[in-house]
Write a structure and sequence with these properties.
101 residues, mainly alpha, Non-ribosomal Peptide Synthetase Peptidyl Carrier Protein, Chain A
Length: 101
């Protein structure tokens, strides 16, 4: 479990925005928290897996994909803002994320 610092949310937001800008070949200025990754950017669920790997390495997270999958089934994250929120939960709770309601 990584410690949430004051700048963690801003750092996560920057990484997520840069990731989707690069992967979807769209200007970062066109992205907003309510941008739908699949509908607006023609992205796919594999992108989230790539993003998860980035954060696992960056924050030294020990989280299993199946655990995140259980959470995502109940709480789908379709927008960039929702992905940022879910990423913060993963950083804070790691494998305990599946226990959250």
């Amino acid at each position: 479990m990584a410690k949430i610092e004051n700048g963690t949310v801003e750092e996560v937001r920057r990484i997520v925005y840069e990731f989707f800008s690069e992967e979807c070949e769209v200007s970062i200025d066109e992205l907003k928290d309510d941008t739908n990754v699949i509908k607006d950017l023609e992205g796919d669920s594999l992108m989230f897996l790539e993003l998860l790997e980035i954060f696992k390495k960056k924050y030294g997270l020990n989280v299993e994909l199946k655990t995140v999958g259980k959470y995502v089934v109940k709480h789908p994250a379709e927008t960039i803002g929702a992905i940022i929120g879910m990423t913060m939960l993963i950083i804070e709770h790691e494998n305990r994320i599946a226990e959250l309601e």
